Prior knowledge:
Layout: H1 4-36, H2 54-75, H3 83-111
Amino acid sequence: MLDLGEVLIVLTVFGSVVTIVKTVADYRVKIRYLEKGPEGAPTKPLNLWMETGVDSSLKWGLVCLFVGAAVLIIQMMPGYLDEKAVLGGMFVAAGLGLLLYYFISDMRKKSSPA
């Protein structure tokens, strides 16, 4: 069984790495815009962190749907799979949801007039 301390350590390390990478990337982008001057500045504000709108809702809706379906299917088979298989099934389902989102988003971009 997973210990809560182990999970918190992994989440803390992962979160720290993500935060450091994001901070460095944002800093480098800002420095590049400052070097280019006013003519190199974007016309609309940069949103480097969060997506908004229909695409974000579609993505997270698909991920939640697939993970929920995986948990439901696994829970219908008690004693058949151990905890590691449950966690692996959830990750596989999340990956499938993200892949489906990618293909739907790609089809939308190709069909919309640019």
